[in-house]
């Protein structure tokens, strides 16, 4: 017999509201905020067989679901939509060099940067990579995260990228309570052995790697790092066009280091998201809104690298772009997995409202990953929640990091 439960919360955040740009009222108005998160005061959720079967005011809750479980604040489990969580080794030496005044090129010459992680990850065994990935994913689950994206990008070789994708698949089997979305980021940087023949690497990715990934069903998305020092717009177009033809959903790192046109490319090809966007412009925002391409903003990177530029979150929302937040957990530019801190920084640094920030780690993040049953509380959705012992839901971003009484309910 399937388990039936009834959960009642003073503040129930369903995330069923319309997008921010469609709501009237001044930014931060109580009515606008509550509409955005689909707030139900004294709301209830009924669950059966791991799915939501009823949601609404507690006074109209149906019988037959046992003794209600009572909470102060209840919302969908969070969704982490941009990580590079599969890696080996340490980039702590890079961090020390950067704080001593060395630039990116100097760090590369000293043997650091992404290439050092590629070297260490290639040298690691399957067992070591799997164990470290599982430990990192378990830390996300302990925060109340119900779905996590994991990118490759530290293999940068035909065999290594396939090996890493198989390890991600094994981690997903080991942690059934988490929905893990695998993304192939073979277009992270051009690996050292291809530096003098970039076209050959792009050809390998398009003609050999991506077709094999598709044949084996090892990834759901393909990402490219289209930026200064990574892949050009023309190279990125070739890779994303091939990926789209093979049935992959598309993502793009763009406009982090300079304005190169990667965001316009992402929108043109119908990518689910363009991520980073520190140097994106108004024309990029308009193209994203027209294409339905979301923005994934990564404030931990700004802090970790002490970047002078920040993405224009308010302009994105005003243009009609949905905004997600993520840690960008990786060993180089954001060695942190605290999604709650990311929410706080989304408000204080990027000037999102509490409702916009919380929606950015639930519904919008789930949509970026193509997960229609995550990130919201509605009939048919996965019964994955996170609860907090707080006097009001809007107190959540006010706490820098973990808020009191956080309780993952991942089923």
Written overview of the protein:
Strands 5-6-7-8-9-10-11-12 form an eight-stranded parallel sheet. Strands 3-2-1-4-13-14 form a six-stranded mixed sheet. The chain has 15 helices and 14 strands. The two termini are 16 Å apart. Helix content is 37%, strand content 20%. The longest helix is centred in the middle third of the chain and has 19 residues. The chain folds into two domains: 108 residues, Urease, subunit C, domain 1 (Roll); 290 residues, Metal-dependent hydrolases (TIM Barrel, Alpha-Beta Barrel). The mean pLDDT is 95. The protein is globular. Helix 7 runs parallel beside helix 8. The protein is of the alpha/beta class and 411 residues long.
The termini sit apart by 16 Å
Briefly note the structural class of the backbone.
Answer: alpha/beta
Oligomer: single chain
Provide the CATH top-level class of the largest domain. Answer: Alpha Beta
Write out the strand line-up for the largest beta sheet, numbering strands in chain order: 5-6-7-8-9-10-11-12
